[in-house]
Amino acid sequence: MIALMLAGVCLLTCAGQIAQKLAVESWRGGERGWPARLLSPWLLLAIACLGGGLLLWLLLLQRLDVGLAYPMLSLNFVLVTLAARALFREPIDARHWCGVALIVAGVALLGLQS
Fold first, then answer.
1. Please, what's the b/e burial string for 30-60 (b: 16 or more CB within 10 A of its CB; e: otherwise)?
2. DSSP summary character for residue 23
3. Spans of all domains in the chain
4. Neighbours of 63 (CB within 10 A)
5. Which residues contact 63 (CB under 8 A, 6 or more apart)?
6. What is the pLDDT along the chain (114 residues), one digit of tens a residue?
7. Cα 39 off chain centre by
């Protein structure tokens, strides 16, 4: 159950970050005012995902020590990196991939504790 909740928090947070990027990308070149921008479907989706992630995070913290749970959220860096590469064709250099590998290794080590 804890693993599913952690995965849910990571996925919702990642989706929220991607939706934020899509929101600001949709604002480019448009002459839309701030009220229209703030009601952008992508921005509303970002708020919903991040809000859902927050609520799930609070439930997770009832069951898991914050010292263990919080470092596991670093998986968001991995997910956002993969999504940025796939969706936005962002270049990712070797140093970045090494960082991703270190994060995955660190989370795996922490996972052995629980």
1. eeeeeeeeeebebbebbeebbebbeebbeeb
2. H
3. 2-113
4. 11
5. 1, 2, 5
6. 888 999 999 999 999 999 999 999 988 877 678 887 888 899 999 999 999 999 999 999 999 989 888 888 898 999 999 999 999 999 999 999 999 999 999 988 887 765
7. 21
